[in-house]
């Protein structure tokens, strides 16, 4: 499990200062995305499971304390850290929920030292998963019903990221993953074919295809572009016929003009009496390239996507923040240039007319998106599942307006702010200015 | 340790096919970056330590095999996997070495099943670390001797990535990191101040600064921009004088016009008789913004950098590849459109006139960059260290031409190809075309 030292030093500084001063009043921090990047018309919330797993087990080990002692924390601080656990409350939107700027993905209320300590890990986890689910969702929009396979493992920023991409793409609706460990851990369908090196090691393409068909008679997919792509399609067709794989086999094209080559391949396969053989393409595709192939009606059955998905290449990080919005019963705002915050514990109501951001206690029409997922440090309600998140996203996707779905110039829905929240923000701002000038 | 299932399914497909067929001849794979992105004038090789740690311990656990059985691998495959270990040779450039397109970062020779299986993890690790070291190096160029601190933990793609960024930025020359677990594991200097929430929880800025100075009398850094930045500077100055922190304290500005505010803060501090108080800035800075502040002579002593560094925002992934270049004594090339490869085991010689890419056995002038780091599955030579890599990069950086160092329109050095390699490439291409047409 992730440890308590997976934090920034300043969190430990602040936490120890609070603990030393007996400042243990409840603080509410709100985790949300400040602005949507121009390339995103909506985001898909994810990472809640990782966040809750961290909070449940948050504790300092003796070796953590030994290290903290070596860098200057005194016995008072170490004693307080030794006893520290997360015993607070968390409200969150379910994974797979569509969210927009300023809508809380997660809100946490706990004594301020532990609420502060959790910041770095929670931001890391929610940002990673939400970034990846939001990127994967664009591929799902682009593919318009065709299958997508996660090929990102080799390109992600480490193994945590690979697992997050596999999970987030499953939530978005991908059909399978090449990541074997990810498929095992998450119960997903593993998928894979062969590399060019396989063909090269045989030297002869036909011989390589025959060997592969013999060893994987189930659902072999033949990589046809090692030498000459259409030549490769003919060789694959020969082996498919020889071995009676007409119903199960596929071919994969990984380079070149995918539109033209997929049409050429389809024609060759159809001429050879192989209309059932599926055509799979890959090769650094971003979601706009997938959309272009789909809208040109290229005869492609499935897309494998790696690099562009795995690091969310166009938007590798979202502007997530974790802001103090209430402390010791008092609403809090921040007035720094360009970084204003809204005070108080919040709720978002979603209705046919759009979203309303208000205060948790308000009574408003629509579906309240945030629910309590942790009370006194323990999870409440049933644990979320990948299937549940996928189903939630599928439902929300079908209700999204066309403007938000656009890949090239998306326009997110605008979230309205309730009168009560507006009034509280004014009040808190006046108080903060008074304090700053006092 | 990372497990043997941290791989793409196709690697397992190919490995099992090779094992079943007794195809255990030695294969050499070369791991390199195919093209440099326009935003990079040079790359900094890193990730070797993670790669070797993976190879040393590569083995299937029984639970791995149980899973593979459940997805269709038969007893023959499982038995072969059970016995599989990495017992090959690795040549690599030391971490911290500057590399360009097509120059091998690592070359591995082993029986083809295991050499193939290792692909996904090796690509992941070397890509992640090299991407991050190359990004961090640009900050070092930009900061021109001023201190840099890694603030990326909350923004990286997971915890592996956070550790990689901390390590890679240390290699590039960063002075410290906010990542406490990273500092512990790697023996680096942890650094941190306070967040806006700390000020907000006190409500009164002066009171918060006094509390922090009392709790952290060593080297306190006061965050001054929660309400009004210059007002915050005055408050920090008062506390610094009150507590006699003139020699050790600093201030941090995290928002707004950093050039103007740093000048205003410097003037106020100097007027207050505090010329030693250091000015620290942060707030989503990319390396060009750092360079602009430095070249405008803004009175900034240190930069904290997070998001833009942590995901290598402008270039989140490099075009690394892992290509079969020799199999069973025979040079191998790939002819796919835009993806041509050069055959054979390679060496790079670096001299004053630039780099020469040739074959490992050649005798050429200059420093041979690749050395053998693993023989028969065991590491050879002394283990690389962060300090060693940092020193290596510092030396290489000082020798880089101005064109490669440019942040805005960098031009990498061009690597020449030796006559022997050119000849082998022609020969291998002719043979491959002959095979493809045969």
CATH-assigned fold name of the largest domain in chain A: nicotinate phosphoribosyltransferase
The largest inter-chain interface, given as chain pair and residues per side, is: A-B, 103 and 103 residues
The first-level CATH class of the largest domain in chain A is given as Alpha Beta
Number of spatially distinct domains of chain A: 2
Radius of gyration of chain A: 26 Å
Total number of helices of chain A: 17
Give a written overview of the molecule.
- The structure is a homodimer of 438-residue chains.
- Chain A is α/β, with parallel strands linked by helices.
- The first copy, chain A, has 2 domains: 9-132 and 317-437, nicotinate phosphoribosyltransferase; 138-310, Aldolase class I (TIM Barrel, Alpha-Beta Barrel).
- The first copy, chain A, has 17 helices and 19 strands.
- Chain A has a 7-stranded antiparallel beta sheet. The first copy, chain A, has a 6-stranded parallel beta sheet with strand order 7-6-11-10-9-8.
- In chain A, helix 3 (62-70) packs antiparallel against helix 4 (75-83), helix 6 (119-143) crosses helix 7 (159-172) and helix 6 (119-143) runs parallel beside helix 13 (287-295).
- The longest helix of chain A is centred in the N-terminal third of the chain and has 25 residues, at 119-143.
- Chain A is elongated.
- The model of chain A has no long low-confidence stretch (mean pLDDT 95).
- Chains A and B meet through helix 1, helix 6, helix 7, helix 8 and helix 9 of A and helix 1, helix 6, helix 7, helix 8 and helix 9 of B.
């Amino acid at each position: 499990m992730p440890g308590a030292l997976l934090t920034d030093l300043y969190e430990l500084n602040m936490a120890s200062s609070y603990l030393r001063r007996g400042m243990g009043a409840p603080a509410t921090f709100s985790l949300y995305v400040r602005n949507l990047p121009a390339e995103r018309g909506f985001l898909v919330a994810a990472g809640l499971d990782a966040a809750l797993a961290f909070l449940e087990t948050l504790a300092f080990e003796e070796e953590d304390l030994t290290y903290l002692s070596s860098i200057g924390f005194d016995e008072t601080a170490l004693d307080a850290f030794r006893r520290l656990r997360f015993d607070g409350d968390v409200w969150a939107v379910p994974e797979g929920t569509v969210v927009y700027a300023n809508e809380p993905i997660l809100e946490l209320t706990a004594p301020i030292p532990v609420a502060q300590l959790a910041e770095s890990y929670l931001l890391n986890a929610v940002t990673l998963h939400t970034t990846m689910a939001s990127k994967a969702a664009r591929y799902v929009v682009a593919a318009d019903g065709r299958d997508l396979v996660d090929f990102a493992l080799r390109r992600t920023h480490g193994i945590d990221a690979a697992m997050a991409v596999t999970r987030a793409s499953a939530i978005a609706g991908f059909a399978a993953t090449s990541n074997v460990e990810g498929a095992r851990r998450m119960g997903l369908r593993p998928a894979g074919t062969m590399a060019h090196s396989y063909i090269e090691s045989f030297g002869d393409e036909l011989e390589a295809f025959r060997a592969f068909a013999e060893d994987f008679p189930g659902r072999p997919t033949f990589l046809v572009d090692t030498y000459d792509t259409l030549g490769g399609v003919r060789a694959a067709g020969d082996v498919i016929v020889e071995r009676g794989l007409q119903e199960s086999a596929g071919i994969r094209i990984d380079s070149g003009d995918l539109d033209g080559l997929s049409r050429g391949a389809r024609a060759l396969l159809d001429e050879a009496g192989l209309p059932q053989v599926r055509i799979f393409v890959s090769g650094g595709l971003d979601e706009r390239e997938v959309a272009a192939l789909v809208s040109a009606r290229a005869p492609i059955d499935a897309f494998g996507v790696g690099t562009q998905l795995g690091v969310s290449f166009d938007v590798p990080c979202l502007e997530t923040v974790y802001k103090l919005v209430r402390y010791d019963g008092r609403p809090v705002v921040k007035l720094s240039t360009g970084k204003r915050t809204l005070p108080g514990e919040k709720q978002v109501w979603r209705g046919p007319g759009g979203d309303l951001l208000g205060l948790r206690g308000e009574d408003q029409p629509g579906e309240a998106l945030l629910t309590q997922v942790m009370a006194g440090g323990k999870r409440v309600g049933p644990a979320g599942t990948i299937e549940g998140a996928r189903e939630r996203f599928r439902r929300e996707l079908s209700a999204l307006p066309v403007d938000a779905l656009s890949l090239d110039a998306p326009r997110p829905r605008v979230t309205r702010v309730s009168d009560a929240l507006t009034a509280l923000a004014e009040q808190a701002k006046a108080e903060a200015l008074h304090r700053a000038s006092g």
